[in-house]
Specification:
By secondary structure, this protein is α/β, with parallel strands linked by helices. The protein has a domain of 183 residues: Acetylglutamate kinase-like (Carbamate kinase, 3-Layer(aba) Sandwich). 38% of the residues lie in helices and 23% in strands. It contains eleven helices and 17 strands. The strands form four sheets. The chain has an eight-stranded mixed beta sheet, sandwiched between helices. A four-stranded mixed beta sheet has the order 8-4-10-11. A hairpin with a 7-residue loop joins strand 13 and strand 14.
Length: 322
Amino acid sequence: MTESALSEPATAVIAVGGNALAPASARSSIHDQFRHTRAALGPIVDLALDGWNLCIVHGNGPQVGDELVRNELARGEVTANPLGVLVAATAGWIGYMIQQSLENALRRHGSERDVATIITQVHVSPDDPALMEPTKFIGHGIPDARAQALIAEGHAVKRDARGRWRRVVGSPRPIAIHELESIRRLVEAGTVVVAGGGGGIPVYRDAILGWEGVDAVVDKDLVAAVLARDLDARLLIILTDVDAVYLDYGTPSQRRLERLTAEAAAHLDEAGTFGEGSMGPKVRAAIDFVRRTGGRAVITELSRGRDAVRGEAGTTITAESQ
């Protein structure tokens, strides 16, 4: 959609997976992550140049997993930081990479739009059962021997949809975005905002102390859906490492789903069609956004982001058949 097609600036929220910036196939240095970040910005630059108001949400699975490893290796020398603080730290450094790389790209295209990062707190319930049942995968794949050692030390480690051992942590449901009004003011003023980094830092309201952090990781796709809903966004794009949503993914009979209504997607999800640690949360986030706003959600591979903006790639989920 071009700027001329927009009668007034519309808002799009784009969720970028942490693996887009630090691919699971390699141990990425910070220089590699900057390179991957620059390569990931194509669809975002396109939307910005077309006049959309934009909010970018990014994952941090590989990065926060690496931070936990650094915690372990350095625990004899320095005090380890809790998981919530590590989420805030990774949101800062990834936000910096996106902010700098995106501004450089916009300037090369002659755009003077501002880019800003907001370290975001996300309201969760301290009684959320997910805090006691770790399911959110973080970090890279772990060799068998290392996985068994971590399990023996009391860490939660499970096999993901691809059969790799990985750490898992609690992932409570996001209720609201604490800095929503600050984000809204910037977005409506035309600033491209990076918010909800790593799913945001989960916090709850303590009756005596006020806001307190929780050691957990909130799913960034669900946070993107909450932000898109509360910012009255028209479009939610979830960029991942798979080109679309599939039936029977990873089997000889896998079938790509190009378009789904929210109702059809919900039926498939309830039947357990999508992987809990992979595509399931993305589909659920898209369904929630579409049902609450009537907007359009697209799930696709990072490299197809430009085509997704035009509705020519990935899986599009809408309120009704189109």
